Every structure is written in structure tokens, then in C-alpha cells.
Amino acid sequence: MPAHGRPTLARRLAGSAWTLLWLCVLGACLLWAWQHPATQRARFTWELARSPAPETLPVPVQGVEAGRIADTWGAPRDSDRSHEGLDIFAPRGTPVTSTTRGIVTAVRDRGLGGRQVWVRGPGNESHYYAHLDHWAPGLAAGDMVEAGTVLGTVGNTGNARTTPPHLHYGIYGPGGASNPLPRLLATAPPPSPP
Ligand SMILES: [Zn+2]
């Protein structure tokens, strides 16, 4: 019966068109979700956690050579505290840059560290940048940063009020705090022969 042929074909075409439309909508939704900042952050966090902790790190204060940094790690502090970081002295306002890629976990003004930034980097290590004069404009928890991203400027906030401006830089890994200096020195260029 040829009379039935045409409506069936039209119905099939309409069905295919609907299927195609739904696939397009689904595709658009998946693309949107994939590119959504929350998804990107989740992917980045996962990637960071799986990456090994870097063996070498750049100096987080612009213009400072690793070889000129005094090893202040473990120096005694008041009562039973010891210094769990490095003090990197530089003029007030010198840019402080992230040593690794990572996610900013805190931007706050609190306690001994004063104005501080925390970055969760590769290998489940948290990087602590303290005594900042100012934070980088607009920097906020949840931001994704690269090595070299400016986090703030050198200052003497917190318990550094009575000392010359410096960055207190600390690294806290799964095994506790570690001295950043060996890794900063590992990136320093070898001394030129006499
Ligand atoms: Zn310090």
C-alpha cells in the first residue's frame, strides 16, 4: 500500500531529527560541563595530586639569587618553636611569585604570618608565603596559578613587624615541613669558572 509509505518515512525522519537534536543538546551540556571552571579546577586538583613533588624550585622573590639566601631553616624561635621555613629578604614591594603550579587555598591576614597566601602544589605539598605587604590584586582562594604567577609583594606583616621586609616561605608536605633551600639551590645556575 503505497499510501502508507510516505507518512512512515516522514515519521522516521522526524524521529531521527529529534534524536539528532537531543544528541546536540547532550553534547552541548557535556562541553559546557567540561569547560566549567569547577570541572577545570577538579581536573587540575586531581592532576596536581597525582604529580610528584618538584625536585627543583625557583626562588619565590623576584631578583633574589638562591645562593644569597641564608639557611634560616630550623633556627630556634620563642619557647619550643623552631623556624619551619626560609626568610628571604628583599625591599618592600618586591614581587613574590609562586614556585609551582597549584591551587590557591587561602588568602588571609592572620597570626604570626600576617598577610599570607597558601598554594596547594604538586605532590600534596602546601606552599606558604607570609609577611606580605599586599596580595596580588584579585587573588582569591580557588584560583589556579602557574609557577611564576605573582601572589603578592614582600612586606613585614604579622610577627615580622619589627624586622626588615622579607618573605617567609614554607613547604608542608605529607611528611610535615621541609627545608625549601636545597630545592631552590638545585635550580641556581652553577658558579662560573674563575
Ligand atoms: Zn620566617
TrEMBL record:
It comes from the Bacteria. The chain crosses the membrane at residues 12-34. GO terms for molecular function: metalloendopeptidase activity. Keywords: Membrane, Transmembrane, Transmembrane helix. Residues 72-92 are annotated as: Disordered. Residues 77-86 have a biased composition (Basic and acidic residues). PROSITE patterns: PROKAR_LIPOPROTEIN. Residues 82-180 form the M23ase beta-sheet core domain. InterPro entries: Cell_wall_metabolism_enzyme, Dup_hybrid_motif, M23ase_b-sheet_dom. This is Peptidase M23. It comes from Pseudoxanthomonas suwonensis (strain 11-1).
